[in-house]
Amino acid sequence: MKLIVFRSFVLVTCLWWLCSVSGAQVSATLSGRVTDSTGSVVAGATVTANNIDTGASQTAVTSQLGQYEMVAVPVGRYEVRATKQGFADGTRTGISVSAGQDAAVDLQMRLNGSDACATGREFAATDCALTWHGITLYGAYDIGGGWVSHGLPENGYNYEGASLVNRNGYQHRFLIAPNNLQQTGLGIRGKEEFLPGWFVVFNASTGINPQSGLLADASKTQIINNGLPRASYSYNIDGARAGQPFNDEIYGGISSTNFGTLTFGRQRALGTDAMLQYDPGGGGYAFSYIGYNGTMAGGGDTEDSRWDSALKYRLTYGPAHFGAMYKFADGSGGCFSASATWTAATCTPESAHNNAYGFDLGGEHGKLSADLLFQHYNQAISVLNLISTSNTLYGIVTDNNGVIGAVKYAWNPFKFYAGYEYIWLNNPRDPLGVGASDQGGYILSGVEDNNLDSERLLNLWWAGVKYTYRSKTDFTFAWYQQRQNDFRVPKECDAVAGFRASCAGTLNEVSGYVDHHFTKRFDAFAGIAYSYVSGGMAIAIPHGPGVPYHYDDNLAPTIGGRFAF
User: Fold this and answer.
1) Rg (CA), the chain
2) pTM
3) What's the rounded Cα separation, in Å, for the pair 514 and 136?
4) To bridge 478 with a disulfide, which of 280, 327, 500, 543 should be the other Cys (CB 3.0-4.6 Å)?
5) For 17-35, how does the pLDDT look when each residue is reduced to its tens digit (9 = 90+)?
């Protein structure tokens, strides 16, 4: 009996030992550290170990020190990959996990964007960045030539070309076309880590007219036409770029890998960010109405595509993202009087109430992305060249609201785009007066605070498709439409009464172009845009009988090239 018990004990002990040895021989521990290209740790990255032989996988998330660990990893051959929003994936292949031997696999990721250029040859042949100690210089030069069926002479301050139908255009002519796919300009940005996962960020950028070298200045194009007969006009536009040293953006702030980014300064509106993402034409002036005209991006007013003195917050959590923006009131409100015979002694000094706010909620699911935005802007200004003084502007003032919905779907080699915006404008709750300040420090010597008899409603639609051929050539087709309601009371919109700018009307643009990338930095393009207006949108000057467009359509083929760095 004792012999039987002893033999049983020995057998159980041997089996336990064999199982322990066997278990030790079929698994190991996999660990390592994840850093970025500067050597800083990457916290919150997801590390996945994929077994090449079985297809099984294990995951872990890096700690605040950038470290990860996976225990009981079966022996075999592995590919180890680190992923995180805002970073390019870091991958190691050919990793062998042997029985009882722990494996150390460190990974390196880089921020989305390009690594720093090491040589001049690399700069010419790749999309590497001109980065030194975390500070990057970037920019573009975009210029071309074209023909317009109904256009005007260019001037050195205009930066939007001549593709869109223009109220004063009357000549068919060849011309130099600036900034067709991208605004020519320069910028400098930086992102420096000061604590693990925390960064100081900044950006400063400006746009220029590529043939004159002058700062982009929409307001100046109005002023240089003031007092001239209509037949002597050059192109005049309205916009947020008004000759400021940094007429695109200038801001600074703090960014966290877990808590998002908060910045303050002159910044693109949330609608501008959405336009650049969901416009099939990428905001290019030659082939995109919503890029050329900032009504969509600015929530009803092209001057509001960029906000001064603004806080902006962005957060990405998994596939979802959130944005919020607030603009503080700034500038002068001028001197206001309801009397048509006001004087400096009888008018009331006004404070600026041009604050604004907006929200954005969006996300991605596979190849589909979508965003929903709301923007509100008080005392929005739209300027016209209606006065004879040489250094001031005439402004129409409204309070604006806009809601945007946009989607994009990638189905290689196609990308599909669609969007809609509903905008409602009212006379301002707080009026502006003569002497009020506008973009770029310009002054209003004429103001309309009561331009609307009733609420003005705008509807904008767009849709398009981009086809990529062999990764280097893009074919893009797009359609844009803007509609407005009758906002004059009583409306006088017929052949007898005569149409006014306050009458219902429509603007349409269709475009198509091909863009071939010879290198990562240089591409050439050719395409055509056709735009036309009808009803009240074919009248040049709001309220009253108005002045009709010389011609209500424009055909504009364009060819050119772009160099970006």
Assistant:
1) 30
2) 0.79
3) 30
4) 280
5) 444 444 444 788 999 999 8
